[in-house]
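TODO from last week: model DUF218 domain-containing protein.
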Amino acid sequence: MPKHVHVLAKKIWDYHLLNQTLEKSDCIFVLCSNDVRVAEHAAKIYLAGYAPYIVFSGGEGELTKGLFGCSEAEYFAHVAADMGVPLEKILIEPQSTNTGENVQFTRELLESKDLTPNKMILVQKPFMERRTFATFVRQWPGKEVIVTSPDISFDEYPNEGLSYSDVINVMLGDLQRIKYYPQYGYSIPQDIPKDVWKAFECLVALGFDEHLVDVAG
């Protein structure tokens, strides 16, 4: 990767991280995806005693259609169970296809089971921490939330299934959504420093535009 691309991408990666500290909570809420390391991180949090149960939320998204042979939530639950999380402590929401639905459908699932967590640990990919927080607070106000992700650096994050280019494209899409989604009522506003948005514009100009949405008008 060219040095200037790395510098710009790292600036955006760092912006997405909230660096919040884990605390004992009522529920672990996992927003599932193609990254199984998120499931492993969530299982470790449960096994460390941070919450009494764990809910996995996710159907099939753009990046996971046909990947697991089941919903993201079901696959992540299998990973957690294999790591020692008791099946009776796992809830599964297998229908959601985006972050807003993750929150909406998980809320409905918990309410159907008379579960009313006031403090939750949200588990997500590193570059989706900030958007997850902004979306959750808008879609389910009045709750105390802590957002966490696997402790993986930008340089360590790509693997055999996800290239540097993939990571940059996706996290630029998330940054664009952080900027524009509040006007549609999807999330609360987040301050974006000028140098972070300039890095976004530079990377888009270099062709990293695969996960951008149409925000015309």
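Done. The first strand starts at residue 27 and ends at 31.
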